[in-house]
Amino acid sequence: KQIGVCLVGLGNYSSTVLAPALQLTKHCKLTGIVTGSPWKIPKWQERYKIPDQNVYNYDTVHQIANNPDIDVIYIVVPTGLHAKYAIRAANTGKHVWCEKPMAKTEAECQSIIDACQKNKVQLTIGYRMQHEPNTRTVMDWATTKPFGKIKTLRAEIGYNVSNPARSWRLNAELGGGTMYDLGVYALNASRYVTGEEPISVSAQQMTTRPEIFTETDETTHFTLEFPSGAIAHGKTSVGKSMHELYVDCEKGWYTLAPFSMYAGVEGKASNGTLLNIPIRNQQAKQMDDDALSIINNTPVMVPGEEGMKDVRIVEAIYKSAKLKGKVLAL
Ligand code: NAD
Asked: What is the ipTM of this complex?
């Protein structure tokens, strides 16, 4: 059986990445859409052969409960709306996939987890990197420690966006902010590289374009301290291009660069090991892995708890930055 996926929100990521990736998946396929923009419907129906009865708007999501073509509802709306629609999705009794970052607050994340538990449905967060093979190698090294103890790591993700679109990404209420949007990759990497949860955090935020970034961060730097003594330095920005993960250990180093792009994730280690396993399409792999968890009723690779751990730290990062870099215990 192929799992039927319904995309909620037909914005940039759904239309240019997820829907095309769903044409490459083996275990799932695009069967439904939820949109508040009726003009998008004919093109989507035609391109992906979606029948009238599988087209919904935000107010009719509850009706998906009765649709046998749909097994999963995939939330791909602005971050500040994830909780609202993920909870509605869970209440239909369908499984829930939710984009990163999971939500704006830890409390919202918990409410999504609770709704999925109550409805006995699976919940998985769209951290595509955790399905990418070279990233998996680095995640395994958190346990096997081939280069000894980790001393420090750097995780830097940024794009030089010269003209940021006036979208929800600049709107704090809707979950905008570079730390939420991009910084979460550096944060998640800090956690999967060490395999630990940080015990303290400090952060600074700065902007070179205050007229654009009136309520959200353009650039965030954060430092995490882990129980083993490892220190992570994270940077994220929409004013500067940067894409490297670098891990310095007692007996060597390794790196992935880029570590978070859709394609071309690769790296090397101080002993000459190359991290260069190819992958056809990250999102197709992610969705196939998640579909198999539903088909086989096995634990998901990236559960809601994983998304919530990051969001809790993101909240602490914003708090520390507001306090001018104060070190906060976690
Ligand atoms: P987008 O702005 O292109 O699309 C957002 C969609 O939500 C639009 O179709 C919009 O109409 C809809 N929407 C519904 N209610 C809205 C409201 N009140 N205000 C604004 N828009 C509303 O954004 P996107 O880039 O597609 O991002 C959507 C989600 O996907 C975000 O959570 C983002 O973090 C995530 N994302 C993940 C990745 C990844 O690599 N995993 C990449 C890009 C985006």
From this structure: 0.99
